[in-house]
């Protein structure tokens, strides 16, 4: 209701504190901000533009020639459009944060505020976050995200299905390695026992021969001592 009342007002009855807001420059970073020409300012700000170049819009009233919107303390706010022919269209994010853009904004009350004899013109920078992406880029990001999610789900299902087979194969491999190690240990112990037995037998045989060699000379000596019968 307030909007329709404002639209019916003449230039002389605009609300006190009214002003015109225009985007006169901008860029994706502080270092790339450039000034727009008069034609570009009209295309980027005027509700009469038919080239799909509007940067922003609002439901407030317009000037007498309907070229620009008139803002005031009763304004309903701004909607950032960034249509396909505007400089902020499809701004690509350079980090994990949302797309951003720097606008150079001009605010002036000249010709729209008759409650004061003071004309002012103010220029300031406006930093906007979260600008809308183009339909193609948004669809591409959606498809990539969905593909990654589906791929992770498929990998998880494959892992769950193959896990029992992998566990069985690991158990068989462990059993075979244990058998090989056990057989090698048994062979080594058998060879060790055989070597010990051979060494023990050789030691006993050597001791017996030495004893015989000692006994035989003693018997011969006794035989020599006995006098021979005639």
Give me some keywords for this one.
single chain, 230 residues, alpha+beta, 2 domains, 5-stranded antiparallel sheet, two-stranded antiparallel ribbon, rod-shaped
Explain what the structure shows.
It holds the Pfam family CATSPERG_C. It comes from Camelus dromedarius. Residues 16-177 form the CATSPERG C-terminal domain. The chain crosses the membrane at residues 139-164. Keywords: Membrane, Transmembrane, Transmembrane helix. By secondary structure, the protein is α+β, with helices and mostly antiparallel strands. The protein folds into 2 domains: 20-133, no CATH class; 136-185. 46% of the residues lie in helices and 15% in strands. It is built from 3 helices and 7 strands, in the order H-E-E-H-E-E-E-E-E-H. It has helices spanning 2-7, 38-45, 135-225; strands at 19-27, 34-35, 56-57, 70-71, 79-80, 100-108, 121-129. Strands 1, 2, 4, 6 and 7 form a 5-stranded antiparallel beta sheet that branches. Strands 3-5 form a two-stranded antiparallel ribbon. Strand 1 and strand 2 (34-35) form a beta hairpin. The longest helix has 91 residues, at 135-225. The N and C termini lie far apart (170 Å). The model is unreliable at 1-12 and 207-216 (pLDDT under 50).
Principal-axes shape call: rod-shaped
| Annotation field: number of helices | 3
**Helix/strand order:** HEEHEEEEEH
Strand content: 15-25%
Instruction: Summarize the amount of helix as a percent range.
Output: 40-55%
First-last Cα distance: 170 Å
- Which structural class is indicated by helix and strand composition? alpha+beta
Total strands: the figure is 7
Radius of gyration: 51 Å
Main beta-sheet annotation: 5 strands, antiparallel
User: Would you tell me the overall average pLDDT?
Assistant: 78
Question: How many structurally independent domains?
Answer: 2
Low-pLDDT windows of residues: 1-12, 207-216
């Amino acid at each position: 209701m307030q909007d329709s009342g404002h639209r019916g007002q003449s230039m002389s009855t605009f609300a006190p504190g009214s002003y015109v807001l225009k985007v006169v420059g901008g860029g994706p970073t502080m270092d790339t901000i450039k000034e727009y020409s008069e034609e570009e300012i009209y295309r980027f700000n005027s509700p009469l533009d038919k080239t799909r170049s509007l940067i922003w819009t609002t439901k407030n009233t317009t000037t007498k020639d309907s070229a620009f919107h008139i803002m005031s303390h009763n304004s309903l706010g701004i909607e950032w459009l960034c249509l396909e022919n505007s400089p902020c269209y499809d701004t690509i994010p350079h980090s994990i944060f949302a797309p951003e853009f720097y606008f150079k904004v001009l605010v002036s009350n000249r010709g729209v505020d008759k409650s004061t004899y003071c004309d002012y013109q103010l220029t300031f920078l406006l930093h906007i976050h979260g600008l809308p992406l183009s339909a193609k880029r948004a669809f591409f990001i959606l498809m990539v995200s969905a593909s990654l999610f589906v791929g992770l789900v498929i990998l998880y299902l494959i892992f769950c299905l193959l896990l029992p087979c992998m566990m069985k194969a690991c158990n068989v491999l462990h059993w075979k390695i244990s058998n090989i190690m056990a057989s090698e240990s048994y062979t080594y112990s058998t060879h060790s026992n055989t070597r010990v037995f051979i060494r023990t037998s050789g030691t006993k045989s050597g001791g017996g021969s030495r004893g015989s060699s000692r006994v035989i000379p003693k018997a011969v000596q006794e035989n020599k001592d006995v006098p021979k019968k005639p």
